[in-house]
Hints:
Helix content: 10-25%
Strand content: 25-35%
Largest sheet: 9 strands, antiparallel
Oligomer: single chain
Mean pLDDT: 81
Radius of gyration: 21 Å
Amino acid sequence: MKIECMDMIETRIPDISTLRRIKVTSELPENHLIALANRLEVLTARNKELLLEIGATEKTSLYIIKGKVSLNASDGKTKIITVDESQELKPVAQLRPCIYDVKALGPVDYMKIDTQQFVEFAQITETSVTDISVHSLFAHDDEDESIVNQL
């Protein structure tokens, strides 16, 4: 799904393969990844567009999906990060308040994920994966019933 705004910033829902590139979501079942994807959007930045600025306090994690960005510290030091579609996704400039200006060097696809929403989703997913109710121990075939009785 693509949405184009008047200012030509393109947004779209990330596909599951993109979310599998993030370590903490890589092993989630497909239905959980679909639910998460529907809460997120991939943005495309133009060359020299500022993605995050020094002093920003927003509680999001910035993930560069594809492209090149520069991290510019207030002391003048610069770090360049290049990400292609085969690499694992890691958050960029995590500290808050942010200590870098993060600027696109050419077109850049990225996501900003609300940190609390991400944590809550991971906890819900973890709970649903590990939640075993007593009812799930009882099945209708004889083999499963004998195991439950032995327990």
